[in-house]
Design goal:
With 450 residues, the chain is of the alpha+beta class. 24% of the residues lie in helices and 24% in strands. α2 runs parallel beside α6, α2 packs parallel to α9 and α4 (131-145) crosses α9 (432-449). The longest helix has 21 residues, at 350-370.
Length: 450
């Protein structure tokens, strides 16, 4: 377990792009969020004695040395920190208006809710990986992330029994990536990797383009915070910049595949709140967190957060993967580096709308079961869940997937993806645990085939 109490320190030195441009790397990882951090840790562990040259570049700045929850003094104003590193790109994407990009060392894992359920067994039926193999990597991910269920208080037990007796048989406490009061972030992966062997880490370093060379090296064109351009070289590249940025890099680099940017998937997302008249379950000292998981018959997941007088719900519905839900480049709208911004086409299918209807029924049933009065219920904008996936999904057919079953981009030896983009489908669960499990698997494949 790597979650520890060193949250107030970060002793990994940063490297300049100038110094990194003087080296030839075995692997460069692009992005320091969940997927990038997991690959870095796994390769550092596997190559402990080999001492390979590993580099990581991150477009964002150093903001926090750990998850924001680990700093009690930030409890009241962590959203101010979030707003400084996030960009609401959905404002210019009418079909995906809830989208938000976060640029920071550690990425979204600095702010995530640390909810870590596994995908439902049925969701692996059309994956290129068996459930048995995924379970193996889930085990590794859960162990390294310190995933534990919430405690069972008398009030928690009473609530679970009520739910289980009223149609929610699978109700349980929420599994969370936290131990000894410390919430997991990808910074933990970076620390653990550094303990095993040194690596070069550059922040405020934006990958603009990559090029496959005849020498089998891959050339990266990277800009620093002053917009100075550098060339980096590696035998293998792992793109972990996120499900919107990773395909953008591939498309801008001229690496065209039929599925690049397609099959954009997210969750339908409902927020709801109810209130109790009085202290419904007695004095609740600590917020009770309950998960009502996806099942064969219910393609949605409900997260319940219960306090003395209220219940808040976060509900995720399964969304079908469709080729026409996609992102493309907008040549008429470029960023400060001259890279085209993205356009998004996204809509819910009739089946997706039916799942939303079912979720709304389930929300009402939960409130009635627990004796709470509805305060509000809102269907959030597409992208607001921050769970976008699928845009470089793995598979066995290049016409329907961007990468093979190990995350290697078709037709480009040495080029991998290892973030939410590689998920073949989204199920109805929070994707971070699954992304980390797949990223560890990508790391194993690079190690075995190097």
């Amino acid at each position: 377990m790597i979650v520890d109490r060193r949250q107030n320190t970060f002793d990994i030195p940063f490297k300049s792009l100038e110094l990194m441009s003087e080296k030839k790397y075995d692997v460069i990882i692009v992005g320091s969020g969940a997927g990038g951090g997991a690959v870095l840790w796994r390769l550092s562990e596997k190559w402990l004695k080999a001492r390979k040259k590993i580099g990581m570049i991150e477009a964002g700045d150093f903001v926090l040395p750990a998850h924001v929850y680990n700093f009690p003094q930030l409890k009241g104003n962590w959203k101010n920190i979030f707003s400084k590193v996030s960009s609401p790109i959905g404002k210019r994407l009418p079909r995906f208006s809830g989208a938000e990009q976060i640029l920071a060392l550690g990425g979204r894992t600095l702010f995530w809710g640390a909810v870590t359920p596994r995908m439902h067994a049925s969701d692996f039926s059309d994956w290129p990986i068996s459930k048995k193999e995924m379970d193996h990597y889930y085990d590794i991910a859960e162990r390294i992330m310190g995933i534990l269920p919430s405690g069972i208080s008398p009030q928690t037990r009473e609530i679970l029994q009520l739910l289980q007796l009223n149609g929610f048989e699978g109700a349980r406490t929420i599994p969370q990536a936290a131990s000894d009061g410390q919430t997991f972030s990808s910074i933990c992966f970076l620390r653990k990797a550094w303990e095993q062997q040194p690596f070069d880490l550059a922040i405020k370093s934006r990958l603009l383009q990559l090029r496959m060379l005849e020498s089998k090296l891959i050339e990266l064109t990277v800009a620093d915070s002053n917009k100075k351009i550098y060339k980096l070289y590696a035998n293998k590249i792992v793109l972990a910049a996120g499900a919107l940025e990773t395909p953008r890099i591939l498309l801008h680099s001229g690496l065209h595949g039929k599925a690049f940017g397609h099959y954009l998937t997210t969750h339908s997302f409902i927020k709801a709140k109810g209130e109790f008249s009085g202290e419904r379950f007695g004095t609740i000292v600590k917020e009770i967190r309950i998960l009502i998981p996806q099942t064969d018959k219910t393609p949605y997941q409900l997260q319940l957060y219960i306090s003395k007088r209220s219940i808040s719900m976060v509900c995720f519905g399964k969304v079908e993967s469709h080729f026409d839900n996609k992102l493309t480049l907008d040549p008429n709208n470029k960023d400060e580096f001259g890279v085209p911004k993205i356009k998004i086409d996204f809509s819910y299918s009739d089946r997706d709308l039916e799942v939303i209807r079912q979720m709304r029924v389930a929300v009402k049933h939960v409130l009635k079961t627990l004796g709470a009065k509805s305060v509000y219920e809102k269907l959030m904008e597409p992208g607001k869940d921050y769970h976008e996936t699928g845009t470089c999904r793995i598979g066995i057919d290049p016409s329907q997937s961007a990468a093979n079953r190990y995350g290697q981009i078709y037709g480009n030896s040495g080029l991998y993806a290892a973030d939410n983009s590689i998920l073949p489908s989204a199920a109805a669960v929070n994707p971070t645990l699954t992304t980390i499990a797949l990223a560890i698997r990508v790391g194993d494949h690079i190690y075995k085939t190097y």
